[in-house]
Amino acid sequence: MEPIVALTDSFPGASGAVDSTELRKNLAGLIIRDTSGIPRAGIFPRHANALVFSRVDMYLDIAAFEGVSVRGGGPLFMANDGLAQVQLAAAPASNSRIDVLYFKQNENGYGGFADGVTTAIFGVVTGTAAASPTKPSITGIAGATELATITIPSTATATNSSGVVITNTFQYTAAAGGLLLFRTTAERDLFSAVASQHGYVLANSTEYLWNSSAWATIIPTQPTRGIASFSTDASGLGSITHGLGSTPSAVILTPAFTTDTNSVSAIVKPTVGALTSTTIQVVTYRTDSSVRLTGTTVQIHWVAFP
Description:
The structure is a single chain. The protein is mostly beta strands. The protein has three domains: 158 residues; 40 residues, no CATH class; 82 residues, Sandwich (Immunoglobulin-like). The protein has a four-stranded antiparallel β-sheet with strand order 8-7-9-10, with no helix packed on it. A four-stranded mixed β-sheet has the order 11-12-13-14. A three-stranded antiparallel β-sheet has the order 1-4-5. Strand 12 and strand 13 form a beta hairpin.
């Protein structure tokens, strides 16, 4: 019985059998995909720094990166292997505008692609000047992957002029099964993740797992620890942020030093008070009198167990 949907030619496989459109479909399984099966375009994170920078002229500097654009049902792996420059149009005569910087691979003469050329490019969509400018869309540019937006006021003579705002808007991608970076929880929530996808939000330094209904915080399985310095209040209390993401099952506190020098034996004795999913309440006493230490700077070594 003939299959209803034909398999693509394999890679590697019969010499010369696979073409460009088939190969990208074969490679689609290597990239994180959404619930519709579409590979996620974006940048593979060498780091979490900006890629697009201003200059003393109307050009932009673009740092090296490895990325993915998506066209024809699969990924196109691309790289900027050094510092590149792209020119923007002169500032508008009045008001301001928003430009969008992108990269793409032009394709022509196969798979129904008809860009006219076959070069990899950085492109800019120049926005329309207005008192309240809007960001132009690049959705009509097949295979375009956004890198940044640039707001250009009428007074700009260079991309580092006052009032010019460069926002690195590129999204991150990763290999299938990998940890996917997001700048914010709002960006994370826009992604239609498949079950078991792990994500990391840079804004709050927190790892999450998509459990098919929500992004659940990954709770550490190892203890957290540190040295906390604080001034006790009128009740001899202080607070430590433990970073477990859940209420500790146990806590160890040991004293480091105190600024109370009224007695040689006035060493702080820390005890555990209330515990929450974020903090450890510390109750401090003097070891020579069991009187609470109030208004005193103390330093505590601590370990919190999940």
